[in-house]
Amino acid sequence: MQTGSSSRFGQNVALLIFLVLLILAPRPLAGWLDLASARRFKAAGDPASAAVKYASAAQRLVWRADLWEQAGLAALEAGQPEAAIPYLENARKALALSVDGWLALGDAWAETGELPAAMAAWQKCSMSGPAYERMAQAHRGMGDYPAALQDLLNLVTLEPQAAHAHYELALFLAAADPQSALPELIRAAQLDSSLNARVEPLRLSLNTALLSDDEPYRFLLAGRALGAQDEWDLAAEAFRRSVLLRPDYAAGWAWLGEAKQHLGQDGRPDLEHALQLDPDSAMTHVFYGMYWQRQGQAQKALEAFQAAVKLEPETAAWRVALGGAYEQTGGLPQAVAEYLRAVELDPQDASAWQALALFSVTNGYDLAGTGLWAAHNLLKLAPDEWSSHDVAGQVTFALGNIGEAQYQFEEAINLAHGQPGPHLHLALVYLELGERAAAHDELETARSLDPDGPVGMQAGRLLEGYFP
């Protein structure tokens, strides 16, 4: 028994001595302990705590100024750019910032909205590909397209095998010099075949544009191609160049007005200027109608679409737009008449069949006849589009064909996992089948994919109703 007591007494004394030494430890020892803690926190996936410990170690181990950079990198990783900046600034003052540190300092300034300071930091490592990439993005966000273009030229010079860099450069060149964009598009696709789906439509559009000697028209086609790829800021730049070359170019002003709306700007002055220049342009009247739809002015939109159809009564797309406007203003008989006229005018237009099928579902109009007919033609014309299967599923679900609806919604999800609508609709199928767990999962997915949109909000209401 005495031996056991002596052993415990010895352990207690050793622990007491360790604690006393820890309390009385000089700064270097405490610094090394902080550094060890920082590394443990980082390994455990806790960068915020690691940042604090790295900073404490840097204060105590004054010859280890590089630890300020580690503190800054950890703070930035933790989503704390305000904390990262003073840490990284301490490393800068001690001449201890690496290339990664300069990049991180720029990132931290950028995240706090201080773009000039961010640019200054990135320029310190401007021979770095990531720095050029960041500067290009920042210049683009600032609307300084010539500077962004130069950044991308520097980037592809430094990293000639970077497919994404060639593709981004091609987008900028499409807005500024369409002919020079083609070699970059081809090079991007050669380096990364997965870019083909985006490269090929743009390449074809630019080739078509270059067949014309009309430079404003070339920029118009280039801008439309960029808009089709959702690159609306660059599309707007192309349209600006178009109207600068020809100030009375109504189509250029109309497309510029449309592009501005996609950028959250007021495109109405440009659209109205386009109408003044060419009041007989059906396309401009359609853009004007779309403008009023976005403003929630359904009657004004209806009038604009009516004007377009009056000018070009044989264009199916204008009939679809007019049908939608009638639907919004409560003119359901007129709406279905326009949709039916659209599919008659252009039976190969999948969008017209989709509009007719959705009208049938939304308004309960002749589902077994018109609805199924429209859905069948939609699937035949666009079998690889997720929306075709989603619409067909909605029609068959409304008709009570649950098995077919489930198949169509699953096909839609397989074609586009990131679309919230099919997940919401599949959840309704599962609720109908009594499969609550599966319904819950699909509703959660729909809400996560569209947290602030109408689909996400509807999924949230269903979750509250069925799973309180």
Structural class: mainly alpha
Number of DSSP helical runs: 27
Measured as a percent range, the helix fraction is over 70%
List the helices and strands in order: HHHHHHHHHHHHHHHHHHHHHHHHHHH
What overall geometry do the principal axes of the alpha carbons give? globular
CATH level 1 name of the domain at 161-279: Mainly Alpha
Would you identify the CATH architecture of the domain at 161-279?
Alpha Horseshoe
Rg, nearest Å: 31 Å
CATH superfamily of the domain at 161-279: Tetratricopeptide repeat domain
Oligomer: single chain
Q: In percent, how much strand structure appears in the residues?
A: under 5%
Report, as a whole number of angstroms, the end-to-end distance.
62 Å
The overall pLDDT average reads 92
Keywords:
Serine Threonine Protein Phosphatase 5, Tetratricopeptide repeat; 79% helix; mainly alpha; 468 residues
Secondary structure: elements and pairs:
Layout: H1 2-23, H2 27-43, H3 47-60, H4 66-77, H5 81-93, H6 99-111, H7 115-123, H8 129-141, H9 145-158, H10 163-176, H11 178-191, H12 196-210, H13 215-228, H14 232-245, H15 250-262, H16 268-277, H17 282-294, H18 298-311, H19 316-328, H20 332-345, H21 350-363, H22 367-381, H23 386-398, H24 402-415, H25 420-433, H26 436-449, H27 454-466
